[in-house]
Amino acid sequence: MRRLAIILAVIGSMTTAALAVQPDEVLDDPALEERARDLSKGLRCLVCRNESIDESNASLARDLRILLRERLVAGDSDSQAVNYIVERYGEYVLLRPGVNGVNWLLWAAGPIMLLIAGGAGVMYIRRRSMSAAPLETELSETEAERLRELLKE
Amino acid sequence: MILALGVALVQMVLPMVGAAFGWRGWMAVAEPAAGAQFALLASAFAALTWAFITSDFSLQIVVANSHSAKPMIYKISGTWGNHEGSMLLWALIVALFGAMAAWFGGNLPDTLRARVLSVQAAIGVAFLAFIIFTSNPFARMAVPPFDGQDLNPLLQDPGLAFHPPFLYLGYVGLSMAFSFAVAALIEGRVDAAWGRWVRPWTLAAWVFLTIGIALGSWWAYYELGWGGFWFWDPVENASFMPWLLATALLHSAIVVEKRESLKSWTILLAILAFGFSLIGTFIVRSGLLTSVHAFANDPERGVFILMILAFFTGGALILFAVRAGTMEAKGVFGIASRESALVVNNILLAVACFVVFVGTMWPLLAEMFAGRKLSVGPPFFNAAFTPFMVLLGLVLPVGAMLPWKRAQLGRTAWRLRYVFVAALAIGGLVWAMQTGRSLIGPVGMFLAAWLVMGTAVDLATRTGRGQGRLRRLFRLPRADWGKSVAHAGLGVTMMGIAGLTAWTVEDITVAQVDVPFEVGGYQITLRSVEELRGPNYLSTQAVLDVSRDGNFLVTLTPEKRMYPVAQMPTTEAAIDQSFLRDLYLVIGDQQTSGGWAVRTYIKPLTVWIWIGCALMALGGTLSLSDRRFRVAAGARKTRAVPAE
After folding, report:
1. C-beta of residue B17 within 8 angstroms of C-beta of residue B115
2. Which residue of B256, B374, B385 to mutate against A (max A Cβ within 10 Å)?
């Protein structure tokens, strides 16, 4: 299946060379077009390797772009139009995964890690700064012993 | 050639065993062996390059990646523009660093040097075995064909010709930090001297990595034809994660060197940084994650690299777990101090790296454990990664000015008050000038101004007061200059990214010949479209005149190229670069109406992204050339003796 997709992608990129969004796709209403561009940047081209349909030259991406624009012209809101495509092509098309199910872990990973690391950092720094006073004034038993040994040598 | 590789392999195993047992005579083998290994690999690599130069089509990879009509520079770069050759280059660089450590490491204690070299050799052995067993670059063709299949045309570009060697120098340079870390763990001793030895290697690796990533992103900018500079592609992330960790390592090694704290953390970072280099290799080679520019997908190779990865990272981490306890930190410092600031730096960089890592691996994890097939793309990374960089930029100027040990946060911050106000003013001005919407522009400009001016203040305060300040400014240690230049470079890059992201103007239109159209204040006229022949491609070249307010500015010639041998088209954007904005033109297909599709971007401040990267690399190089590293030997010995 994936091999087929790659072959398709190669063929797709061969037939239509240079541009992603073709001039004939552009909507007349600039506000609507801008919405379409923003949305298509967040949708994945299914036959490509990690490109959004906004960047892709593949014909499938073109079909999706046109489909998206049709929905917007028909009066769909942004989320309605995106949901329409997600329903047909699956969650895989979303480049920005939604915060649902296990995905909250993905989104929370950074902040959680920051809290953990920050906590550890604060503890470390505090420990180092607290140990300042005793360490500077006196040596521990073993250290004192070691010092005596060293002085003897 | 295979014989040469075999000999190299044998010669590496000997010192490794010898050093492991710590016998003096055996340890002495390490040095000449490192040199010999490098010489043998260099000759193997030279032979492969020669095969490419002379288009020797009896070799499989030459057939697959070269063509007799290809320009010379790409014949040479074709040597590493493929899986087998690049792995050989990788092994060569491992050997190069090993040999350099042997040559310049005269001031290292014998056991430490032997262990470093043996760990380095172990890495070399693993990768050589990998090359020989799964991807032999010298595999022959039974019947040599008449001509080759050409290098992927996207890779036929000066930016990319030099991108892999730099990147590999960076990746593999981190192996030195790794070797030092493992050697220190075996040795059970990490002290200021260790930090001093590790830092130049890390710094060099970091400089190369910076240049490599910058070249790659510059290439993506003008070659992929829609003007993006960073895609958050798995392969890009693979190079970016080691960079983030190397940056962290660079900073924490300073703490080890100057204050003998953060030791175990630094060791861990060194292990992880190289671990991420290996993970990067694994991601790129295994085809586990789909990517625009993965060029070798083979499960068998993937498994092999995974084994190498598991062995080295896992082994080192176990060693770390066992030995970390023996490393007692010495330095003591207050809550507000340079040390704390560097801890904050490390936390932010490590967490940012973690975010990139989770994002990169998430599609895989979600599919394996939750059965969901999903994508994690640029919108996620932009949202999840940027805040950490903003935070980092915010604390950087203050942290960089804090003195060691014990500082007063208020006093340092007070010195920066004018700069802060000025930066705020710039951000506010930008906020007022733009037509609303995005926060990226103002915040980016604020951070850029804050960073650049903050480092200037830092330099200025270092010169002290009174007469001869200018002279003292130039006589500051190069490390100080390096630090300031690199930090300012980060600010400059942030400015470029913010400008590009926030204020790009884009237009797609059907252009008729000699009918002007207007984009963002520029009048653009398509003059002609011609068919041309390059050395190994056919080209459709458009000629466009650009003017502003009736004054002619420049003629741009974007191209569409077709490489007949590889059966691949590429777009060659035409870019008019200036310090304020890039004018970026791409030509598309001819329309049924007779006109041509033309895509125009006006991208403000874009050049500064790479100027900033260049500044960072320059800063690193300046620090590297600091006297301190060159005279480290004598200074260390005198200090190390009384400490014993």
Report:
1. no
2. B374
Tell me which of 1.10.3470.10, 3.40.720.10, 1.50.10.10, 1.10.8.640 is the CATH number of domain A2-93.
Answer: 1.10.8.640
User: Residue B145 is encoded by which pair of tokens?
Assistant: 């064909």
Per-residue pLDDT band for B3 (boundaries 50, 70, 90) equals low
For B565-621, give the secondary structure using H, E and C: CCCEEEEECEEEECCCEEEEEEEEEECCCCCEEEEEEEEECCHHHHHHHHHHHHHHH
Structural domain boundaries in chain A: 2-93, 103-152
Q: Is B295 on the interface with A (CB under 8 A)?
A: no
Residues B467 and B470: their CA atoms lie apart, in Å, by 8
Measured between CB atoms, which of B231, B331, B335 is closest to A126? B335
**Among A10-14, B366-370, B487-491, B627-631, which stretch is predicted with the lowest mean pLDDT?**
A10-14
Among the partner-chain residues B233, B290, B355, the one whose CB lies closest to the CB of A109 is: B355
ipTM over 0.85: no
Question: Is B403 in a helix, a strand, or coil?
Answer: coil
Secondary structure of B180-236 in the HEC alphabet?
Answer: HHHHHHHHCCCCHHHHHHHHHHHHHHHHHHHHHHHHHHHHHHHHCCCCCCCCCCHHH
- Give the pLDDT band of residue B143 (cuts 50, 70, 90): low
Domain residue spans of chain B:
1-151, 505-607
| Chain B neighbors of A102, CB-CB under 8 A | 366, 369-370, 372
Other CB atoms closer than 10 Å to residue B531's CB: what's the count? Answer: 8
Residue-level pLDDT at B326: 61
